[in-house]
Design goal:
Layout lengths: L20 H16 L11 H12 L4 H14 L3 H5 L3 H8 L6 H16 L8 H5 L6 H12 L8 H12 L10 H10 L4 H17 L18 H4 L19 H14 L4 E2 H5 L5 H13 L4 E3 L3 E3 L4
Helix pairs in contact: 1-11, 2-3, 2-8, 5-6, 9-11, 13-15
Length: 311
């Protein structure tokens, strides 16, 4: 989600007949990005690799508007991985607030500990070393290597996958889960120049976030609308498996969130009776609490009380 300072163009233009689909897309998308990219704190040089990594953890399934205040508070409190590593993991869960999917906070804390112990407190630039950190998967390793260090990697988040599905494959939405075919396409579309590839990764992601959105896409503002395969085909409707909804009300996720909210606001152990008041249905409440304990987000204590994890 950051914008490396790299050349804006992939080099001298080739004759159109000799250029592949990626080369026809690079320049207009990067030019659009140069003009329309949002000024986000993790895109600024002072954010560094740690700032990029924190943003990538927080932005998973969470909109920028919700991430911004938590990100600023997080970096003010823990400007380096070692600062976070020195704290109890429960403090990371507490500071995560209401971003959702709080296991990300534990994973980020675990990554900070590993960075401190294995890499002297500096986020590694090597893609393999990034991938070896706890809580770091294929996407996050590629994103940090690309956005923080300007390297050439295919960075496939939901926004990028949607842009590629429409512009190149000619379908409205990508599959529910990333496929081998999508990975091959992303690698084929990468500019050869390392810096331009990093710029392309950020630019295609921003295009999906701002213009080629899941609903109400703004084709009139799209720099590659004239060559978009989906648009040229008449925007055929999605005919694949049903797209997963994001239900929340009444789910175990909602119960877990309410239980964690009580624990985050407490300054000491919380008795079972206080947790019992957050949800009316005892079976679902117990299942949610057991899940939090199993995930390492909550520690049970003797006497039937609970707290955020210390170890």
């Amino acid at each position: 989600m950051t914008a490396p300072t790299t050349p804006s163009h992939p080099g001298p233009a080739e004759p159109a007949a000799e250029r592949g689909p990626g080369e026809r897309l690079h320049a207009p998308v990067i030019d659009w990005f140069d003009e329309h990219a949002r000024d986000l704190p993790w895109r600024r040089p002072e954010a560094g690799a740690w700032g990029v990594m924190v943003s990538e953890f927080m932005l998973q399934q969470t909109p920028v508007s919700r991430v911004l205040p938590v990100y600023e508070q997080w970096l003010a409190r823990w400007p380096r991985p070692a600062d976070l590593a020195a704290e109890a993991p429960g403090e990371a869960v507490r500071a995560w607030g209401r971003l959702g999917y709080p296991r990300r906070a534990l994973r980020l804390h675990g990554a900070a500990v590993a960075i401190t112990e294995r890499h002297g407190g500096d986020v590694p630039s090597d893609h393999g070393q990034l991938l070896a950190l706890p809580g770091i998967g294929e996407y996050t390793a590629a994103a940090v290597a690309s956005f923080a260090y300007g390297q050439r990697h295919a960075v496939l988040d939901t926004n990028v996958r949607r842009v590629f599905a429409r512009a190149v494959t000619g379908v409205q939405y990508p599959p529910n889960a990333t496929t081998a075919a999508e990975r091959r396409l992303a690698r084929a579309l990468l500019p050869e120049d390392e810096g331009t590839a990093a710029r392309w990764a950020a630019a295609s992601m921003e295009l999906g976030a701002l213009v080629c959105t899941a609903k109400n896409e703004s084709c009139h503002r799209c720099p590659i609308a004239a060559q978009c395969a989906w648009r040229l085909a008449g925007k055929p409707a999605h005919d694949g498996p049903p797209r997963r909804g994001q239900t929340y009300a009444g789910t175990d996720r909602q119960v877990r969130g309410r239980l964690l909210a009580v624990l985050r606001e407490a300054h000491g152990p919380v008795p079972q009776s206080a947790l019992d008041r957050v949800w009316h249905e005892p079976v679902q409440r117990a299942r949610a609490l057991d899940g939090l304990v199993a995930d390492g987000l909550v520690e049970p204590l003797p006497g039937g009380s609970y707290r955020l994890p210390l170890g």
